[in-house]
Design brief:
28% strand, Protein Transport Mog1p, Chain A, 15 helices, 3 domains, 10-stranded antiparallel beta sheet
């Protein structure tokens, strides 16, 4: 009537929350499926037909089928990725249980080796949504005289939201994924919850750092592929505590395979090798307390320019371990060209690694950053809306009219009160669109027909403007020569709409710049576009 879960002392390490959560979830599924009630009915059948070996056989088979059904329901919740961890928990727990044969009064609670083997076989073959009651289970139902011993599986009974600690490492639903306006390789956020949504999976973060260490102002989400991202968090000693030589602690979280983890942890930049650099890596097992992981040493050799012709070597060491489906990395030692940036003791490494918690469970560290700095990037509609609120006007966000010309970045300067979009072609910047409420050059062009340009050394030059009609709007155009000695010219277009001033400039460099046709297409698109909200984008 008032069911309880009993866990024999010594059978489980209570510090292993993942193993503990599997066991609790399994028992909760039994409760939701009303298996206690149906088990009672099977006992009544045995009491009545104690002399019939078929009933005893049926009850034993039903016990196995009931456990398999419960395992399948749990795996429906956890997902196929956790079948190995769940199966190993079952094996380890059952192995300990089988050693209790010297306690006869406890025998009723535990299974035989063959029953455990049957459950493990089911788990190894499990596919999400594919579980069906076996023919043997149906035969058992007939043999017990129509008693319904096992009710149907209902995954809805215990959903992922009911057991957040168990399912927190799973990937997030497609509804939570963000539609990016600018899908940069590396994105920076000042909000950990937003970074988690963008990363696309739930993760843990440290709840311990050496004295004086605080999270820096942003969290980085970097793309591994179109489907996978990883998170980077850096902790700095802002208070320069005495007797602590550490300047920076780097922590990374991955939801991908180990090969990709190692590649990104070491940060093997192809350009580094093209420039004559060399990287050597080595691995060895590393166990810290109850955490089994790997120590990775990376040696970076850069052709020296100042060290008497000798290669300058930098060395980084990382502790990499896995927890609830995610990979975690902690750079615990780093020397860059003779300067030590981090040097953690094994005790400190273990404290940090064992302290990781889901963000909502963190109690000791503060992950609330001071907020966005004066200049920051725009990636999605929410960022755009926040930027519009900060500057007080609606933005244009015109995409390129040419497949070779792409938006590489969008950014806000709260200090200078403008919104900018950068266009690239072949990875080179070919145009910039600035939007602001106060642009003196536009007023000068409208009133005098000239624009004053500040050159190198503070010299001022006046440039005559040309009045154009583009997309039904009056646009002032002027050109000036860039001070790079190559004869390249900058073409600038300025205009105003609804109290907002716009400036679009483009280089005429033959190497990276836009052709006349490309420039005309892009400027017509930019001038003719409406604000983001009005365009329905």
């Amino acid at each position: 009537m008032k069911p309880k879960i009993y866990i024999p002392q010594g059978l489980i390490n209570m510090d292993n929350l993942k193993q503990f959560s599997y066991i609790i979830l399994h028992e909760l599924v039994h409760y939701k499926r009303k298996d206690l009630f149906y088990n009672s009915l099977s006992i009544v059948a045995v009491l009545i037909h104690w002399f019939n070996p078929l009933v005893w056989f049926a009850m034993n088979k039903m016990k196995l089928q009931r456990e398999c059904a419960c395992d399948a329901c749990v795996l429906e919740i956890l997902g196929e990725k956790e079948t190995v961890d769940y199966g190993m928990t079952l094996i380890n727990f059952s192995r300990k249980s089988l050693n209790l044969a010297r306690y006869p009064q406890a025998a009723i609670f535990f299974e035989t080796e063959s029953q455990i083997e049957g459950r493990i076989k089911m788990i190894t073959k499990f596919k999400k949504g594919s579980y069906k009651m076996s023919a043997s289970a149906a035969l058992c139902c007939v043999l017990v005289g129509g008693l319904t011993l096992v009710n149907g599986i209902s995954v809805k009974a215990v959903g992922p939201n009911a057991i957040p600690a168990v399912t927190s490492s799973s990937t997030m639903s497609s509804a939570q994924k963000i539609q990016f306006l600018v899908d940069s390789q590396v994105k920076e956020y000042d909000n950990l919850a937003k970074a988690q949504t963008v990363a696309g999976f739930k993760f843990k973060v440290p709840d311990y750092m050496p004295a004086g260490y605080k999270v820096i102002n942003y969290f980085q989400v970097e793309k591994i592929s179109d489907k996978d991202n990883f998170l980077s968090i850096s902790f700095n000693d802002k208070y320069n505590m005495p007797n602590i030589p550490i300047d920076r602690i780097s922590f990374k979280v991955f939801h991908t395979n180990y090969a990709e983890v190692l590649k990104k942890v070491v940060d093997l930049d192809p350009q580094f090798e093209k420039d004559g650099g060399k990287v050597e890596t080595s691995e060895q097992p590393m166990k810290l307390g109850e955490i089994n992981g790997t120590s990775v040493t990376a040696k970076f050799f850069t052709p020296a320019q100042k060290n008497q012709g000798k290669d300058t070597q930098s060395v980084s060491k990382y502790f990499i371990w896995q927890d609830e489906g995610n990979w975690y990395s902690l750079e615990y030692s780093g020397v860059y060209q003779g300067i030590e940036s981090v040097n953690l003791s094994q005790d400190e490494i273990e404290k940090i690694a064992s302290s990781i918690r889901y963000p909502e469970e963190v109690k000791k560290l503060d992950y609330n950053t001071p907020g966005k700095s004066s200049d920051y990037e725009i990636y999605d509609k929410d960022d755009l809306k926040a930027a519009e609120n900060a500057l007080g006007f609606k933005f244009k966000f015109p995409n390129s009219a040419n497949k070779d010309i792409k938006i590489s970045s969008a950014f806000v300067s709260k200090e200078n009160k403008y919104f900018g979009i950068e266009y690239c072609k072949n990875n080179a910047v070919v145009g910039n669109l600035l939007q602001t409420k106060d642009y003196k050059q536009y007023e000068e062009a409208r009133n005098t027909g000239y624009v004053t340009i500040a050159g190198l050394g503070g010299s001022l030059t006046k440039n005559k403007t040309q009045l154009l009609n583009i997309a039904g709007k009056q646009v002032f155009k002027y050109e000036y020569e860039l001070k790079n000695g190559e004869g390249n010219k900058e073409k600038v277009y300025i205009w105003s709409e609804n109290g907002v001033c716009y400036k679009f400039d483009s280089s005429s460099s033959n190497k990276n710049g836009l052709s006349e046709n490309e420039l005309n297409e892009l400027i017509n698109l930019v001038v003719g576009s409406s604000t983001f909200e009005q365009s329905g984008n």
